[in-house]
Amino acid sequence: xxxxxxxxxxxxxxxxxxxxxxxxxxxxxxxxxxQWYKTAEDSDDLYGLDHSTSRYSIERKDxxxxxxxxxxxxxxxxxxxxxxxxxxxxKKQPHLCATELRVMGHSSIQQIQSRNTLKDTIIIIQSxxxxxxxxxxxxxxxxKVSDSISSSGDVPSFVAAGLEVEQMxxxxxxxxxxxxxxxxxxxEHPGEE
Length: 193
Known about the structure:
Largest sheet: 5 strands, mixed
Low-confidence stretches: none
CATH topology of the largest domain: Immunoglobulin-like
Protein name: B-cell antigen receptor complex-associated protein beta chain
GO molecular function: identical protein binding
Number of domains: 2
Strand content: 15-25%
Subcellular location: Cell membrane
Membrane topology: Single-pass type I membrane protein
Domain Immunoglobulin: 11-104
């Protein structure tokens, strides 16, 4: 099945910076019949890692196999699995309980600045779109309300009440009409009182 067989490994995922050491542990009742394998990200080829080298060490103890890469590089990206030693000879696939290693690089100042510029541009575009998506529906709603008032001819009651109050106050402020020409015909000068 797809379950983890005799071996259990830890951790399941590692992301570390380039040139850092990385440790994987495989717990097994029979560590001497187990070994580490590596599969590259873009291939199905399985490479056995059974003996220590100048780049990594394999250490077997009572119930575990410790696999340590001293200084990881981008070539170390891939999937690491602890399984039985005869896997490649029998052309079997390893079990699915593997560990993925992702090597992260150091960002240069130019890369950081370009990322910050991109973030700033995205924020500005989002702000503009937000203003558009909020203001356009409001303008359309106000336009629709003014069209319905002008086309119906009937002024809504709340608007009419406001107009009546304003018109009443304006009407009361008008002084009675007086014919000024009548005084002039009598002989008064307009500048004299």
